[in-house]
């Protein structure tokens, strides 16, 4: 039996968020699934996400919001695309058909519309529809979370922050999961460089809910962006027992931990985390968050001069089946790191060709619209770098510097492309590029004083071009 704390039909109605089903069981399972999504955690007593999704189907096969949350979760996971996955495409069509055949609330209709837009790759429009819901229903947590994820995928930092700010006053302490908004708000604050405020809000969240892994993650970002490495290491270690139970986010938090080691030049310690946590989890889950973290970690280590070639070949087994997905540019760029690292020219070529093809007729797909001017040249820059053509890398990457945010992800995740540009500029034969590399390091030092990584790169630049 489900815990009595999960909300039934009457409880959802009382909150002004009625669900169109007469099954109390379905309502409670919807709540249970939403709770796992917010906590980034599979609850084994419920059979995890998968068990809940099956149970919702069984409790009421025609429950529209049951379909919205189940299919929506698969879509926002970006592990598959309706373009290449017929099962997923038909799940979306079934949800739309069910919604059209029933008398459901205007709020539920908007949820269906947003999910359908997202499934076509129209992330910005989907987010707008979820925001429309939040204007009338500021405590609709599913709308808030789905909007948050959409903003993340398009690098919409201000909307991500303000989306939570707008609804915060409506969330009273008695509303289930209200403390988790702190971590979400903190993340928006830090992505808009308001680090002190972000840290304060995340710590408030942790004071209320110590095992809120997303608040931990926000604090990890703050220490990363300010290069407060030792603080970060201490914090991750001190809170590890609280956040590692959130299995959906644990790998990403371990990734943050490893970044501090890379920053300090402690590559062995970083690789240990890669082997024991990050790669192990990404292989087991196939989760895209875990997978891109594994990719970026190896790429960073390789830029730092660490040999990781056997690791690349193992990771290729995970990424290669996704070569034709093209759900997000962010994923594509990370898959390319792996095929380049593993020296699999065929897969690299195939990924780029596929992206170029989709860029010709992108339709409403926001990511494919960006492919021509952003995704393709970034892929080409990485390929040139891999070939040792450093000045071409700079020529491709430098003009895109301030647009890379549009590829999605967080500042911490995208920092890898800043590092790539610096490495390419320093290695380029072109004197102007070498000066540019030094300028970029000075700029980096201004934003993150006392960064050991910046210091190492500055030393290298001096040694190279004396």
TrEMBL record:
It comes from the Eukaryota. The keyword Amino-acid biosynthesis does not apply. Keywords: Repeat, TPR repeat. InterPro entries: TPR-like_helical_dom_sf, TTC38. Belongs to the TTC38 family. This is Tetratricopeptide repeat protein 38.
């Amino acid at each position: 039996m489900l815990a009595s704390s999960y909300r039934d039909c009457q409880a959802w109605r009382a909150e002004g968020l009625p669900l169109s089903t007469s099954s109390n069981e379905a309502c409670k399972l919807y709540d249970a699934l939403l709770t796992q999504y917010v906590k980034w955690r599979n609850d084994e007593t419920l059979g995890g996400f998968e068990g809940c999704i099956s149970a919702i189907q069984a409790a009421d096969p025609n429950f529209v919001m049951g379909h919205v949350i189940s299919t929506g979760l698969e879509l926002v996971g970006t592990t598959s695309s309706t373009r290449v996955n017929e099962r997923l495409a038909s799940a979306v069509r079934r949800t739309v058909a069910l919604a059209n055949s029933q008398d459901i609330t205007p709020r539920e209709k908007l949820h269906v519309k947003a999910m359908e837009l997202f499934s076509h790759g129209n992330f910005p429009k989907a987010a707008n529809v979820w925001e429309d819901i939040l204007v009338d229903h500021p405590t609709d947590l599913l709308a808030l979370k789905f909007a948050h994820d959409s903003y993340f995928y398009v690098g919409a930092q201000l909307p991500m922050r303000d989306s939570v700010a707008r609804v915060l006053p409506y969330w009273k302490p008695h509303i289930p999961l209200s403390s988790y908004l702190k971590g979400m708000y903190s993340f928006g604050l830090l992505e808009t460089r308001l680090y002190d405020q972000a840290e304060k809000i995340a710590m408030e969240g942790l004071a209320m809910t110590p095992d809120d892994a997303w608040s931990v993650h926000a604090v990890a970002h703050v220490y990363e962006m300010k290069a407060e490495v030792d603080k970060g290491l201490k914090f991750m270690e001190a809170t590890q027992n609280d956040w590692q139970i959130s299995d959906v986010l644990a790998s990403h938090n371990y990734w943050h931990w490893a970044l501090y080691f890379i920053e300090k030049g402690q590559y062995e310690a970083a690789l240990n985390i890669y082997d024991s946590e990050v790669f192990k989890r990404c292989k087991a889950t196939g989760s895209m968050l875990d997978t891109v973290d594994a990719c970026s970690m190896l790429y960073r280590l390789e830029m730092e001069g660490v040999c990781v070639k056997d690791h690349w070949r193992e990771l290729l087994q995970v990424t290669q089946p996704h070569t034709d997905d093209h759900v997000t540019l962010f994923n594509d760029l990370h898959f390319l790191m792996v095929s380049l690292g593993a020296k699999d020219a065929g897969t690299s070529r195939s990924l780029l060709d596929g992206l170029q093809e989709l860029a010709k007729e992108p339709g409403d797909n926001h990511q494919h619209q960006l492919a021509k001017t952003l995704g393709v040249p970034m892929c080409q820059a990485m390929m040139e770098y891999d070939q040792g053509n450093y000045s071409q890398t700079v020529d491709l990457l430098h003009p895109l510097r301030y647009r890379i945010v549009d590829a999605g992800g967080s500042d911490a995740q995208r920092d890898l492309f800043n590092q790539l540009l610096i490495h390419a500029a320093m290695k380029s034969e072109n004197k102007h590029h070498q000066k540019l590399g030094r300028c970029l390091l000075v700029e980096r030092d201004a934003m993150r004083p006392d960064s050991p990584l910046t210091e190492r790169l500055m030393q290298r630049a001096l040694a190279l071009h004396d």
